Amino acid sequence: MIHKKPVRRAALVAAALAALAVSCGTTPEPDAAAGAPATTAPTAPATTEATGSAEPTSAPAGSDALPDDSTPSPAPPADPSAPGTGEKVRDAFATLQATLNDTCATDCEYFLTRVNKELQELDWAMKNDPKGPGHFPEPIQKIEELNKTLAGDSSYKNLKEHQKELIGTRDFINTWMQDHPDDYR
Predict the structure, then answer these.
(1) Which residue, among 112, 180, 80, 102, has the nearest Cα to 140 in the 3D structure?
(2) pTM of the model
(3) Which of 18, 68, 89, 154 makes a 20 to 30 Å CA pair with 163?
């Protein structure tokens, strides 16, 4: 005997996913952090429920599971100041530049944490750029000096204590990148 509830649920989920995919009109980008190409979940034909002729080849694992629930998503970084992954140098530099007009006047903890995070993301992007880390020697060296000063402590207290070095590193890199426009355009 065929259980109609799981088949209906799978058909409804498949139809909803198909409708969302059509309405978005875009193809999902591959997950750069996982290094694997994006996959789309197989969908059942729209006439599955009406005709009963097509059945899903496998049912979702749980009652609330979606067809692609088997692919784990990357966990968010535990540290909010930890760098992201997969960012290009020009994008990382643009977000660092966005801090140029900010100060500690309104929310100093947010500002210093953000500057540190943007510097770490730019460092990661430069080290992973197709041109190679040797293409960005001065900025990478300056960030390494800052990281030695911070000694792995990205707490607000430590960032505030080393605010001058943090902002100085940001400003140095901004000037260096402005003198090397091919690196971020």
Answers:
(1) 180
(2) 0.54
(3) 89
